[in-house]
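Changelog-adjacent note: as of this version, every example in the card shows the full chain rather than a window. The one below runs 138 residues end to end.
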Amino acid sequence: MFFLTPKAVCTCVRDDYTVRQAVEKMEKTTYTSLPIISRCGKYRGTLTEGDLLWALKNLCNMDMREAENRNIMEIVHRCDNAPVSADTNIEDLLCKAKDQNFVPVIDDKKDFIGLVARKAIVQYFIDHCLGDLQQREA
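Full-length structure tokens:
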């Protein structure tokens, strides 16, 4: 939980968004992938730039007007970031973070409570572990 970015400050897309809304949200944030959350708070998957690109081509015929009529849950996801529970151990978290740029965190009711960004983990190790290593070498 030390690395957790709470749901209240996470950038997400809702599962009832249109493709166009998702494109606009991703454009504003500059993130390359975002968690998909239902209105009742459940984690539904991960939406990536690549998913959106293929959806615009295959579902919307490269037409942004058509993108207003397509729901993001129609999009085939290349992969979904596997979530962890709030009480997961650090080893499992690190194994997931090595392959995902963020790890969704869910509670015991499967509600999305936030995410752990790989960047936060790397920054922690830079700040804490590299400093210790440099002090021992000096």
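Structural remarks: The helical segments are 19-29, 49-58, 64-67, 90-99, 118-137.
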